[in-house]
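thread: overnight batch results

M.L. [08:02]
morning all. the overnight job finished for the chain we discussed friday. pasting input first so we're all looking at the same thing
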Amino acid sequence: MMEREWLDDIAEFLQDKALLQRVLAPKPQRAEEIGLFGKTLADETSALPALGLAKPRSRCPACGHVLRWHENVPLLGWLRLRGKCSACGTPIGLRYPIVEALTGLLFAAVAVKFGAGATTLVYCAAVALLIAAALIDLDTTLLPDNLTFPLAGLGLLAAWLGWTPVPLTDAALGLLFGYASLWVVAYLFYLLRGMRGMAEGDFKLLAALGALLGWKLLLPIILLSSVVGAAVGLFLMLARQHRRDVPIPFGPYLAGGGLAALFFGNTLLGLLLPSLSA
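M.L. [08:03]
and the structure it wrote out:
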């Protein structure tokens, strides 16, 4: 859905005659060709079938079989189908039940730790956003604003309404310091190496975690995600011959560090900076 939106935005830019004339003034013929391509791209994306979270209904990617309601029940549907499509028998990936089980377990852990109330609802919503963001980044090396911005807004709103133990000032500082810290690191890396070492989505995700958990927990999040990310990256390069020019998404490690800070924040902070722990 978001990739379609991005293509629509690109098509709109490509059809902006004033923009093309400013940028490609010495090459008016090229500007006309690009504008025509933009119109073709817009026509092709608008002709695609409707796509949303609810429509079309979930279906088998192999044969197109539309899942019945009982086949689409989280975890239970996969178990009932024995991991195969009921129509064509194509195996259903283990990722589906693993993600569903992980989400359910984390929801239960949040409820146990924080009890019944608004805090649990806020943190369950945050867990769902973090899981989605981490897996999308793992697949595409992209962290969508559609997920990081709502997470940041949720953190600030919850702090303002007193739904979480984080004061609004700490949440606002977490948002600021979270973004600025990674931006500074990436900028220094660019000055030293002449290349981008981190994407802007990572800045936004850490900023969102800072808004949700407060500025004090930024250090444990950064340390945990950096250590684990470096270890995995080193393993991939040595054992799997991962090429250095192929980016390794950092979002999953930031999300993992954020979840660790959510459950064990004060303990981690006490180990690193005892003077700041609650």
